[in-house]
Amino acid sequence: MADEPKETKPGFQNPVAGFGVTFKAMFKKRLTEQYPEQQKTTAPRFHGRHQLNRHPDGLEKCIGCELCAWACPADAIYVEGADNTDEERYSPGERYGRVYQINYARCILCGLCIEACPTRALTMTNEFELADSSRANLIYTKEQLLAGLEEGMVDTPHAIYPGMDEQDYYRGLVTEAAPGTEPQVAVSKGEKPQEEGADA
Ligand code: SF4
Ligand code: SF4
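Output (structure tokens, whole complex):
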């Protein structure tokens, strides 16, 4: 047996019925988050923007091994390692990350890269405001990802702590830069040292 057709309201009542839904919603608890004026606190282990960490004297923990890049399922990381020298040292051991980039147009913030990192050089912060309308701006460089300087740190490149070796850094024996530590003159980043008297 066919269903009886439902009784419909007279045509002039339809707009009023629609407003009824609106009025009911006006008195319900609002679920809208007032972002960005009011930001929600993230969970402590939230996966946000990455950070390249430093040792307590300012030397970099990254050794340019590329394990993070190999672990990344989205092919979002690009690393080029290079050799440290006594004249220009960025990390305590033999190698450092000369070029380091993360493409946030690709990254899915899964955290596999930080699990793969053997030196805990790479970790993730709670920062989540990574949107941009430019693809180029979404490629973060080493300069953007490198952690800032805390008390007792000197910016790289600079010499290893006197009397210490790479293992001592990982044993936690270096707690700050040695007295008198000075940044070295960087020559391997593509910029040539300025000759005295040369035009800027
Ligand atoms: S969080 Fe995941 S997707 Fe993003 S760079 Fe690391 S491994 Fe790749
Ligand atoms: S961040 Fe870690 S895994 Fe990636 S290149 Fe540096 S040391 Fe290797």
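Confidence is low (pLDDT under 50) at residues 195-200.
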